[in-house]
Amino acid sequence: MAVRRRFALLAVLTLSAAWVARAQSIAAPNVVAIGPHLVTSGQPTAAALAALGQQGFRAVIYLAPGTVADAVRDEPGLLASQGIEFVHIPIPFGAPTEAHFEALSAALGQREGQKVLVHCQVNMRASTMVFLHRVIKQGENPAVAWEAVTRVWSPDGPWKRMVVAQLTKHRIPFDPF
Question: Is 40 helix (H, G, I), strand (E, B) or coil?
Fold first, then answer.
């Protein structure tokens, strides 16, 4: 029995390493594979967006305003041509709200089981909002989920206030700061 468990663990670790490697092959800043169906990142290049269908992505959720300088102007078209759904939830960097978080959570909930990329410019918005979703909506361990955020940044200002407010509101005893 112990041998079977070891082989099962080895298989899981091998598969995990494979999806992490595939996710990190996306040409974008700060790519973080959360799991086989969820990846966060900064702004992918147009070529990276054009290749997402080949990697099995079914949806992309974009959290930066479309007017940011490095936005790929034809992102919706590049994705639509591959049958990938594009969801835009523009979050002003200096003013994230609970409504933005709820919109992202609803979008992820509607696409559960699908391979989804959540991105913004640098993966600050995406990593933080996905952290909140994982902890509040999916009940994940906050310390484990927080690791994906700290790979990118340490939220401050309005982002720090939002994280603390949402954790407090949902009675999650975790202080990442």
Answer: strand
